Amino acid sequence: MRTFFNLIVKFKDIVVFCALFVICLAFISLDNNLKIGGFRTLVVASVGYFQDVFSWIPNPAALKSENRSIRELNLYLSSEVIKSRKAIIENERYKNMLALKDSAKFELVSADVIGLTSVEMRNYITINRGRGAGLSEGMASRTDAGLVGWIVVCNDNYSIIELIINRNVKISVKSQRSQLNGIIEWTNDDMFTMMNTPDSYDIKPNDILITSNFSSKYPPNLPVGQVVISEPQQGSLFKKVKIRPLVNFASLEQVFVVKELADSAKMSLITDLENKLKLRKTTK
Amino acid sequence: MQIQFEKKSEPNRNVRTLIYSVIAALMIMAHLTFLDLIQISEILPDLLLILCVWVSLREGRFYGMFFGFIVGLFFDIAGLDVVGTNALAKLSVCFLAGSFSNPGKEKLILQSFRFLLIVALSSIIHNLIYYTLYIKLTDLHIFIFKYVLANSLYTTLIAIIPLVYYLPKRNVFK
User: Fold this and answer.
1) Nearest residue of A to residue B98 by CA position?
2) What are phi and psi of A186, to 5 degrees?
3) Which residues of A touch B66 (CB under 8 A)?
4) Which CATH number does B15-166 carry?
5) B135 touches A at CB < 8 Å
6) Tell me, what's the ipTM?
């Protein structure tokens, strides 16, 4: 301690000079005068240059902290990417649905699919719209891709739709290209089959089939499916035609219900004919 | 023929300090009031610098540093300048000038042209320190030639006045 004190006394000029120098710098740095802005800039630039020169020296503590921050940021960003991708897909879907709604000549009521039901090996979906939204039994349902099914039961708030991908479901269709009519039926191999299609019929693969005017269940001109196979069968007058439905039933989340029922007069005429035929059979 | 130097009894340090303080105050007043009358192309002589160098050479480095610091600080406050800039510059100058002081032989330096050289060097150092704080890199040549060199030259010329006053008086008539 005495040595230190003696040292200070010996070099008192330099010690005092350094102390007063620091005091002056402190006064200058505390001042906010813009006149010394250039000097401050120069100091910052010089310090920055030297820091850059020696930046190659690693700082383990800083690196560890930086790594942890980067990992956390990475995790957050990856979840954001997933959300964004999902939003993009949903956006595209909604845009298509909105375009459909604008262009359709029938009034459409949108609904969310809230349930998937299977009753006696038949597939149904439940939607969150019912009589309260103006729906009723017999109304067809579709997406932007195509026909989904028709309402079989509904109450004030919900409706159950029978999907077209059920056995023994028959739909009267026609080819959009050749305008030829036919009836398709859902078979067990996850595709529709067009019944009794003569070899001469102009049905080719990739043809789009839409509901025809002859259908009593579904409104006309709704896309149903796309021809996948159309080939003659050996030893038969009819060709084998397989149709894949346009709707992806595995990812059904939103549907539109067509607020249009079949002409009741036409329906009652068909019903009368059926009843008469039944009566004739029983009396025979 | 005998040349006699007049020997006067010197006042003590406290009195000298008081005298220096009064002179410094007068010089600060002069700087802030009428010194602009003798400016040449916005260049003014630094009277306080001359005083600080004088005091450092006369009283020594240790005393001179404190004197320069306090005078510079007061000048910053009075002149509404960035506080600490003049203090820093004058402190540095007094440290440098005090290095040339020689106890017991102060008058030999103060009454010779070495004083002018010390003033010139101190002025260059002072201006380099002071104007660096206000530097704008686009004005580098103005900074060097006008604010450093020209200012130092003007200050050195003004420093001739006390030198002439303190030149040894020759008594030719014994």
Assistant:
1) A13
2) -80, 130
3) 16, 20
4) 1.10.1760
5) yes
6) 0.81
Q: Rounded to the nearest 5°, which phi and psi values hold at B58?
A: -80, -45
Q: Does A42 touch chain B (CB under 8 A)?
A: yes
Which of A12, A26, A36 lies at the smallest CB-CB distance from B133? A36
Residues of A in contact with B134 (CB under 8 A): 35-36, 38-39
- At residue B118, the 3 state secondary structure works out as helix
Which of A20, A27, A39 is the closest to B134 by Cβ?
Answer: A39
Q: What is the pLDDT along chain B (174 residues), one digit of tens a residue?
A: 555 555 555 668 889 899 999 999 999 988 888 788 888 888 889 999 999 999 999 898 999 999 999 999 999 888 888 888 999 999 999 999 999 888 777 777 777 888 899 999 999 999 988 888 776 656 677 778 888 889 999 999 999 888 777 665 544 443
B61–A27 C-beta distance less than 8 A: no
C-beta of residue A176 within 8 angstroms of C-beta of residue A147? no
| Angle, helix B13-32 to helix B61-78, in steps of 10 degrees | 30
Tokens of A64: 């560890």
Q: Write the residue in A17, A27, A31 that is nearest to B95 by C-beta.
A: A17
Instruction: At A59, list the tokens.
Output: 């700082």
Distance from the Cα of residue A86 to its chain's centroid: 7
Cα angle, residue B134 at apex, residues B57 and A26 outer, rounded to 5°: 70
Cα dist from B110 to A135, A147, A192, B24, whole Å: 113, 111, 118, 18
Q: In angstroms, how far is the first alpha carbon of chain B from the final one?
A: 7
Closest to B87 in 3D by CA, of B69, B74, B62:
B69
